[in-house]
Amino acid sequence: MAARADGPGAVADLHLHSDHSDGTEPPAMVMAAAHRHGLRTVALTDHDTTSGWTEAAEAASSLGMTLLPGMELSAKYEWRSVHVLGYLFDPDDAGLRALTDRIRSSRVTRARTMADRIGRDYDLQWEDIVAQTAVGATVGRPHIADALVQKGVVRDRGEAFAGILSPHSDYYVALYAPDPVTAVAAIADAGGVPIIAHPAGRAGLLPDRLVTRMLEADLAGFELGHRENVEPALGTLERLVRRRDLIATGSSDYHGLGKPNVPGENTTSPDMVARIIARATGSEPVYP
Ligand code: AMP
Ligand code: FE
Ligand code: FE
Ligand code: ZN
Question: For the region Disordered, what residue ranges are annotated (predicted)?
């Protein structure tokens, strides 16, 4: 199908965060920022929650944009975190909901434990983190970072992540997250389209064996356009995507003021958007 320049798929950015997780703006403001940057197809992909979908859908359609409701599901492989983007799944699917409920509740326990540990050395309490987290939002290390900034302990999120919040720090606590195959299968079973986020970062590629198992679990593709992807891992994945005719996306991973990433700094082609829509069975895109 030849997509029209102004039709569904035009200038698409399929990875944006709001304050329902670790972005700094409410979903309607995220949609407005995306529109200002010329985007016409977007996805809201907060970590482990769909609670921003309704507000995002209203804002996107009033701005004339197409919205693919989405999520960035936490997973982990051995010590490293793996993020699985899911698009157009059924938000009421029981299996996926049980998984995200479990991850989110572990995130609260984990953030409280990290607050206790940090609080032994710095002026920081759990309440300071709560104050940086929108009601009902998925809490994460970025909110602890914001509390540390507010307390004057660090200058910005980046400094917090490089030190106090790093996995190598004594303050670090791991969160519960499913293995990547389970995460991919949960999205696919909910009728969604699973794509591995920032798959070629500095930690390197996931092992071939794991990628094979994820593809068997219905993994649709990879987010090849992302500022954290680096060579030579990126080139290897590009070849895999071409060879197996997988879906390739490009996105900003916008977090408002929480990261320098700008809406539309990477984009997804209209034909890839069309493939995602055609493959999904869990929910419909929201058209303007
Ligand atoms: P968590 O899932 O709670 O362990 O926190 C990881 C999240 O923090 C990721 O999803 C990123 O959005 C964010 N993050 C990681 N590194 C940085 C950084 N250097 N600056 C800002 N945000 C970061
Ligand atoms: Fe994030
Ligand atoms: Fe991510
Ligand atoms: Zn993200």
Answer: 1-26
